[in-house]
């Protein structure tokens, strides 16, 4: 479903990704691990379509479609979702309004009927309950005054409500205590199935104890240097990146 | 530079000379106003109060007085639903057939009961000289008059630009209450030069919600004088969306102990629109409070102006004054000019002012778009969030709904 081939990209004239090849088939969850500065966040932003990055070579295909020519909203309509490492605060925009606007924009673009306020609230409350989050989360302005953990949980709430077919979780575990981590992992696991895939970007093995990936890739200096099964994450935990031949550049 | 301004000023004086015998009210007041206007003329940018607003575009137009019998049916049918008794003026004159005002509500017409003071501001002097009609609203002591709507419609037919100078008088007795929704719209090229004189008795409360959606070729100047009595409260909110050039000039005087003035405004301008919000708050008595928040959303080459002046007299101890101008520039060619002026003669006061200018945050836009919200809608959401802080303060649900719809229409017209 997601194919990245020979991707080279950077920002401000500096090359960060130096030839990424990665295929995430339908129904699989892959993890990307790697030291700071290896290009993990650059990859997630390029997948979501953030401006400012220069792609010099390679391609990204989602269901065979060229992702790089699509706007961020077109990528969302196609089913891509980025859980941000640093969720953005939107003062004056209520969470419920934001989520309903996003959900209905996606539904409209897909030719589905929009949800009215009652239908939306039903769906939102069910998602909140599953994630053990308080209802007042909907009334607050998007991420404004949220703790680090609340922001991350709000990303997972958005994912639960928007139900993407492919999620990129960019260090969603950072800033979470163990209980919140379990809730977030359950939120992702609840979506797992033959129609859902994910790329879980993380520093730590910890999250992968709860979201067990089908494949683990090690990113270093802009390239995938090792790929393996879940056991690779445990090997990294024991011997560090150097132990798998992935020193920081 | 001011030859055109002087010439246009002469035209208005000539009009006054022709028509003065038929205008209602004390001729002496009008003549005194004419002398002031003759001395000052249409204001040039050399006047400090007009430094950022250039009337040369207005002076380039040759205005005539409005002919009677304009057919405003289309404008009337497009009026928002104010859910309140409505007084309609067409081209400066009350249109009883289009109004639904019950008799005996303390509402009259300036033409029948002219009552005006001499005002020095040059365009208020012009209005004093030429005013024919307007609303006269009186609320007796202790009466809650609920909500009234006042709509001014201008219609320049057959390509002849017109100038109209309605004169409104709003008087609230001690402890009286009123919410007044004021609306301005029109069609064609015209100049709507209105003056409102407001007097609030002790403890009276006037909520004045103004929506200006004049035609794109129009000029709009509103000069409001509010005399606020002890413990009285004047809550004014102006939303400016229309006109090629608009100026709202409010003079609020807190003449009694503990008076309150809230002079808030928002404007959304695009193309080459020019919108000027000018306020002068005179704290003449102790314990008064004034608050002003002005929000400007400026697209294309639009230009916004906020001039806020707070004067605190020696006697006005414990005054609490605050003003804030916030501008969102949606284009690199848009411009905002802010000028706060504080003139304080008392020594125990709290007065502050501030200004912010910014563009839409690209990170916020990307966040919304990454969730599937199209760029235009994402911009709308962020601009609405910016404006909401000003609009949320409007407690009157009906008025808020009217403003919300006007803002939504503004976005629909945005390409």
Automatic annotation (TrEMBL), chain A:
GO MF term set: ATP binding; ATP hydrolysis activity
The family this protein is said to belong to: Belongs to the ABC transporter superfamily. Ycf16 family.
Encoding gene per record: sufC
Organism: Acidicaldus sp
UniProt domain ABC transporter: residue ranges: 2-246
Classification via Pfam families: ABC_tran
InterPro entries per record: AAA+_ATPase (IPR003593), ABC_transporter-like_ATP-bd (IPR003439), ABC_transporter-like_CS (IPR017871), FeS-cluster_ATPase_SufC (IPR010230), P-loop_NTPase (IPR027417)
PANTHER family from the UniProt entry: ABC TRANSPORTER I FAMILY MEMBER 6, CHLOROPLASTIC
UniProt KW keywords: ATP-binding, Nucleotide-binding
Protein name: Fe-S cluster assembly ATPase SufC
Gene3D superfamilies, sorted: P-loop containing nucleotide triphosphate hydrolases
Automatic annotation (TrEMBL), chain B:
Residues spanning the membrane: none
Domain SUF system FeS cluster assembly SufBD core: 162-386
One of the protein's GO biological processes: iron-sulfur cluster assembly
Residue ranges of domain SUF system FeS cluster assembly SufBD N-terminal in the record: 28-144
Pfam family, one: SUFBD_core
Record-linked SUPFAM superfamilies: Stabilizer of iron transporter SufD (SSF101960)
The family this protein is said to belong to: Belongs to the iron-sulfur cluster assembly SufBD family.
Name the UniProt record assigns to this protein: Fe-S cluster assembly protein SufD
Origin species: Acidicaldus sp
């Amino acid at each position: 479903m997601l194919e990245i081939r020979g991707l080279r990209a950077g920002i401000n004239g500096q090359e960060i990704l130096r030839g990424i090849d990665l295929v995430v088939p339908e129904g699989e969850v892959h993890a990307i691990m790697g030291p700071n500065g290896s290009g993990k966040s650059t990859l997630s932003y390029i997948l979501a379509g953030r401006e400012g990055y220069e792609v010099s070579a390679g391609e990204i295909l989602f269901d065979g479609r060229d992702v790089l020519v699509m706007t961020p909203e077109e990528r969302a309509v196609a089913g891509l979702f980025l859980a941000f490492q640093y969720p953005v605060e939107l003062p004056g925009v209520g969470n419920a309004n934001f989520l309903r606007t996003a959900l209905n924009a996606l539904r409209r673009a897909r030719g589905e009927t929009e949800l009215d306020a009652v239908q939306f609230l039903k769906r939102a409350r069910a998602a909140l309950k599953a994630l053990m989050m308080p209802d007042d989360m909907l009334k607050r302005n998007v991420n404004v005054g949220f703790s680090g953990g609340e922001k991350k949980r709000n990303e997972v709430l958005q994912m639960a409500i928007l139900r993407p077919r492919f999620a990129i979780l960019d260090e969603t575990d950072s800033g979470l205590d163990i209980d919140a981590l379990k809730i977030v992992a359950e939120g992702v696991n609840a979506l797992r199935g033959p129609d859902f895939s994910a790329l879980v970007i993380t520093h730590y093995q910890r999250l992968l104890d709860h979201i067990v990936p089908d494949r683990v890739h090690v990113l270093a200096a802009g390239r995938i240097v090792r790929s393996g099964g879940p056991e690779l994450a445990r090997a990294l935990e024991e011997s560090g990146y150097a132990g798998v031949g992935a020193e920081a550049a | 530079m001011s030859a055109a301004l002087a010439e246009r000023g002469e035209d208005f004086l000539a009009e006054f000379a022709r028509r003065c015998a038929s205008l209602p009210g004390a001729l002496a007041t009008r003549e005194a106003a004419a002398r002031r206007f003759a001395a000052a003329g249409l204001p040039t940018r050399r006047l400090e109060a007009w430094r950022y607003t250039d009337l040369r575009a207005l002076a380039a137009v040759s205005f005539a007085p409005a002919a009677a019998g304009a057919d405003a049916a289309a404008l009337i049918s497009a009026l928002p639903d104010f859910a309140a008794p409505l007084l309609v003026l067409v081209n400066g004159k009350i249109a009883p057939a289009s109004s639904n005002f019950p008799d005996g509500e303390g509402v009259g017409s300036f033409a029948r009961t002219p009552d005006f003071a001499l005002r020095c501001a040059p365009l208020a002097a012009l209005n004093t000289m030429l005013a024919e009609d307007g609303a006269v609203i009186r609320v007796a002591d202790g009466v809650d008059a609920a909500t009234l709507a006042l709509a001014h419609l201008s219609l320049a037919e057959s390509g002849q630009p017109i100038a109209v100078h309605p004169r409104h008088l709003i008087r609230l007795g001690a402890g009286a209450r009123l919410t007044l929704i004021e609306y301005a719209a029109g069609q064609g090229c015209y100049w709507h030069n209105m003056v409102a004189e407001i007097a609030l008795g002790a403890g009276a409360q006037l909520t004045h919600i103004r929506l200006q959606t004049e035609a794109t070729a129009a000029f709009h100047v509103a000069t409001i004088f509010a005399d606020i009595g002890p413990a009285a409260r004047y809550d004014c909110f102006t939303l400016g969306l229309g006109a090629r050039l608009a100026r709202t000039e409010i003079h609020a005087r807190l003449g009694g102990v503990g008076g309150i003035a809230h002079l808030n405004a928002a404007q959304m301008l695009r193309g080459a629109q020019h919108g000027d919000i000018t306020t002068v708050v005179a704290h003449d008595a102790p314990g008064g409070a004034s608050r002003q928040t002005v929000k400007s959303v400026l697209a294309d080459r639009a230009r916004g102006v906020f001039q806020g002046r707070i004067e605190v007299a020696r006697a006005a101890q414990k005054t609490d004054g605050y003003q804030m101008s916030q501008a969102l520039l949606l284009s690199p060619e848009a411009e905002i000019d802010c000028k706060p002026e504080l003139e304080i003669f008392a020594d125990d006061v709290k007065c502050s002012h501030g200004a912010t200018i910014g563009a839409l945050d690209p990170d916020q836009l990307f966040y919304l778009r990454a969730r599937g919200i199209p760029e235009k809608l994402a911009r709308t959401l962020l601009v609405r969030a910016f404006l909401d802080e000003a609009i949320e303060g409007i407690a009157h649900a009906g008025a808020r709904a009217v403003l919300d719809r006007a803002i939504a229409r503004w976005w629909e017209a945005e390409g």
